[in-house]
Amino acid sequence: MLAAMKKELAMRHHELEDRKIKSLYFGGGTPSILSVDEIKSVTDEVLKYFDFDENIEVTLEANPDDLSKDFVKNLNQSYINRLSIGTQSFHDEDLRLMNRAHNASEAESSIKRSQDAGFENISIDLIYGSPTSGMEIWKENLNKTIALEVPHISSYALTVEPKTALNQWIKTQKIAAPKEEEQNAEFYYMIDFLKNHGFLHYEISNFAKEGFQSKHNSAYWEYLPYLGIGPSAHSYDGKVVRSWNLANNQLYINNLNQNKLPKEQEVLTLNDQFNEMLMIGLRTSRGTDLSAMKAKFSSEMMENLQKNSQQKLADGVLLIEHNYLKIPEQHWFMADGIAADLFMV
Q1: How far apart are CA 244 and CA 260, in angstroms?
Q2: What pLDDT band is residue 204 in, cutting at 50, 70 and 90?
Q3: In a 3-state reduction of DSSP, which class is residue 242?
Q4: Straight-line distance from the first to the last Cα atom of the chain, in angstroms, rounded to the nearest whole number
Q5: How many domains does the chain have?
Q6: For residue 44, what are the contacts with CB-CB under 8 A and spacing of at least 6?
């Protein structure tokens, strides 16, 4: 697989015009199953085609059970300088529900081992709104996070996906379905709690201490180009083309063995571009840059946005500050629905 990914990089590196990169992200799936030497070999391959910014952020997504003492010690000698750990919860019943391989003790100890190895820039994922917990367990999860001095948190509501064990358990009434009102309450409790502990709520699902905002994710929200290498990886040219690689590992490798790129792509329509720029911006604390939209889209499209947003501005669901259209934080739980009402169709 690594040989195939290196070949894809050789075939596609020219797609990024800027030869100095500010973020490199090992993620999607379980890249922490790679050895440190394999991670170094991929990084060295990237350096054949690109230069690293002096303040580059190099992130590795990791499962807690992969972060052994030796692994994180050796990893700290590589280019990796940020860890994104799939903690999910510090409550064993939650972790069993989510079919996670680690337990609560491993979730905590993996963070401590990483810190002991010298990693300061650590993000953890937390899931709220689980039917196996509740507000008191959620408070314990957040208190544990603060006690561990983690500087970045990505937090998402538990969702029920089709064809999963959780979906089947709910259908057979083995377990209760997540309740939106409970998820709403836990979301807003988290906002107040983390802000009171010095976190910036800079995107709906993301909180950071000053200086620890994710450079990689921020590039997505700022509509910048990115190149994804490997099965299922997504790319964007920063203009109108989005592409994605085949998800099947063998088909991915077979295509590259035949010197064919294992990807599909779409050219975004003007309406697609308008809707994406609007939606992505409205998920951030900064909001959507109306000046940038006015420069990119027709007066008719901007008039349509003004018309659709009038009532929401009057109701306080939207506001405009410094020519940025924003959703006030108290309405962020419903942000996707609010943005959808403003879309071009």
Answers
A1: 14
A2: very high
A3: strand
A4: 41
A5: 2
A6: none
